[in-house]
Amino acid sequence: xxxxxxxxxxxxxxxxxxxxxxxxxxxxxxxxxxxxxxxxxxxxxxxxxxxxxxxxxxxxxxxxxxxxxxxxxxxxxxxxxxxxxxxxxxxxxxxxxxxxxxxxxxxxxxxxxxxxxxxxxxxxxxxxxxxxxxxxxxxxxxxxxxxxxxxxxxxxxxxxxxxxxxxxxxxxxxxxxxxxxxxxxxxxxxxxxxxxxxxxxxxxxxxxxxxxxxxxxxxxxxxxxxxxxxxxxxxxxxxxxxxxxxx
Length: 247
Prior knowledge:
The chain is mainly beta. It has 2 domains: about 30-135, Immunoglobulin-like, CATH 2.60.40.10; about 145-245, Immunoglobulin-like. It has helices at about 1-25, 30-35, and strands at about 40-45, 50-55, 55-65, 70-80, 90-95, 95-100, 105-110, 120-125, 130, 135, 145, 150-155, 160-165, 175-180, 185-190, 195-200, 205-210, 220-230, 235-245. The strands form 4 sheets. Strands 1, 4, 5, 8, 9 and 10 form a 6-stranded mixed sheet that branches. It has a 6-stranded mixed sheet with strand order 11-19-18-14-15-17, with no helix packed on it. Strands 2-3-7-6 form a 4-stranded antiparallel sheet, with no helix packed on it. Strand 18 and strand 19 (about 235-245) form a beta hairpin. The protein starts with a helix and ends with a strand.
């Protein structure tokens, strides 16, 4: 009787071990395996960057733009900065809290960790795997500067021109500007390499996340201007936020 139970136990253990092995083979354990598992899909880009929270170096925000039809969002992070950021086998998936900002136009992943690392965001659309460029988290060595100083020139009616300083930051690569209403619902999102942007003049816009021409501003209504100055490795060096009344 004891021998019979022992043999049943061995058989059951082998079965569990086999199942575990199968799961290890079929479930991607890192970003490289996930990309290989989706080799039938075209690779496309995700617009993404990261900043630490205002006054909290242990809280970082990873912002990304989810295009229409995106699903299965995944966040991957390397063990440290001391890896090849372009070797996707170094990235493991993490499950973090996610919310939306600017009236659901952008998504924001919250990371609570004082350690710096590399991270990547992915999602799927029909026939495509979208992947961000590696984002270098610099919350300890180069914290995001939060300011509220921006010049708003409203000499042209309902076409405010925003001009800002780099606040002595020397490695800003591109600037992301968001215009939102008083409730922070999205109106316009643009990128420039210049330290100015005029609503709504796209002559110096190098990237645009607006799917249609933005609505006109309304006289005497309150709006919000948000700027993110982003480095080449997708870290937000500077955030400027300021409310203004349209003239």
